[in-house]
Amino acid sequence: MPCILGIDSGLTVTKAVIFDADGTVLSTARRRVPQLIPAPQHIERDMDGMWAATADAIREAVFACGRPASDIVAIAATAHGDGIYLLDKDTRPLGNAIVSLDTRADAIADAWNSAEIGDQSLALTGQKPHASAPSAILRWIRDNEPERYARIAHFIAAKDWLRFCLCGTIGTDRTEASTSFTDVRTQDYTDGALRLFGLDGLVGRQPPIAGSTDVVGGVTAATARLTGLVEGTPVMAGLHDVTASALGMGGYGEGVVAVIAGTYSINETVSRAPKVDARWFCRNGILPGEWNSMSISPASTANYDWFIDQFCASDAKAAEAAGQSIHAILGEEFEAARARPSSVFFHPYLFGSPFGGASSAGFYGLNAWHDRGDLVRAVLEGIAFNHRVHVDALRDGFAPRSARLTGGVSRNPAMAGLFADILGMPVTATRTEEAAAWGAALCAGAGAGLFASPTDDPRDLASIETTYQPDPDRQKAYDEKYRVFLDLAEAMKPLWPTLRRLGGAAQ
């Protein structure tokens, strides 16, 4: 039976996953990709190091899958979206990649959005600029690193760099192309977008657009030697990881909102016509005539990971030594805390928020009698509240009837139930293994003729998912807490810039 390689390179881990044609995972290999933080707000990665780690993961997956490499009939990659990866005229990396957690350009994005450019961008491209948008980052480079800017021959996304390393061709796909520079109605590039952002020097240098299922090359001889893949194996264009995750979890479509609780708070739904609003990005869907509207912020479970690192490190080591999980321990503390009233709130804005570049995280309502369980509860509720900010926006525009949840937290029934209570709608948690990689594999398989289309998922989805209904009493209580959560954000808006200044960061 043929198999498919899906590659998923996130913000900290790159993965190679080989799937059988029925969606069964045959092998998975992971490698960490270090984040580089050379200055406040600057979050980067070494591009050659990223490829070396990915190639190593591919090689491990190929040799672990129990099939000859010749059984792999198609390959596609997905990776973190937005940010920027630059190549010079010799197709070599032009410095480190700038990833989507980077906020060096937040002042540029905020200035645009407080002027006419923000509204003009929304009308033209379907989205207002933000700190990690290619438009804002490229403008920052133009203004602060003019020599580097002058040497840009190609600007691409993370998964497009992996595609280049796999097969030697430069380009992108429809979903990734729409992160800054396409016309929201034609779904194709417009030079007017580059000019709007003051990037006239890059007109004509946009990467060619292919469909996510299009074959864009074959594995090169050098890559075959490095990875164990067969030279010439078809490589498809792939897609943005936000879209790949929705596709892989069975949540890509109309009438449903796909909720991905990971580093980013990602919430998205599909429509057959463009609908533009400042509260979401209206971007290209996988196929022509599809739009994927996504309401997102860098404010989800990375906050929970930070909490564990900062306040639970010794307990986590002890639990691991005893064969236990810190997540299980915190889960018990969360349930105990949820059984009693609590005034504790948490804004999960360590890396950003829906409320502008100057925002920051914070605990509120703390008293001496609160314990760690109350803090864990506040962190997890804050994450779900922030998802509701985005889901409520999409409900206004598209009226989705249900939600599908993926991400590490979705495997915890308490968390899936928490999302149902806070969102006030049925939430289906899927046990999909490697949703984003499977989304890429579905595109690869469709391009190879294994599936009729990317949404022709061969799995029995009903057998790997559970639907949680909101509890009426908890939903009512969370509605009240959610209003307080928003009131706290409104009260903090005028103070956040001062806090940032006190911390030494530029406003």
Query: Shape from CA axes?
Result: globular
How many β-strand runs?
23
Strand content: 15-25%
What is the alpha-carbon Rg in Å?
A: 22 Å
In terms of per-residue confidence, which ranges show pLDDT below 50 for 5 or more consecutive residues? none
Oligomeric state of the chains present here? single chain
The major pleated sheet works out as:
7 strands, mixed
Mean pLDDT: 94
Question: Which structural category fits the helices and strands?
Answer: alpha+beta
Main sheet: which strands, in order across?
17-18-16-15-21-22-23
Question: What's the total helix number?
Answer: 18
How many angstroms does the end-to-end distance come to? 56 Å
Percent helix: 25-40%
Give an overview of the whole structure.
Helix 10 (241-248) packs across helix 16. It is built from 18 helices and 23 strands. Helices cover 39% and strands 20% of the residues. The longest helix has 27 residues, at 372-398. The chain is globular, with a radius of gyration of 22 Å. The chain is α+β, with helices and mostly antiparallel strands. The chain has a seven-stranded mixed sheet, sandwiched between helices. This is FGGY-family carbohydrate kinase. GO terms for molecular function: kinase activity.
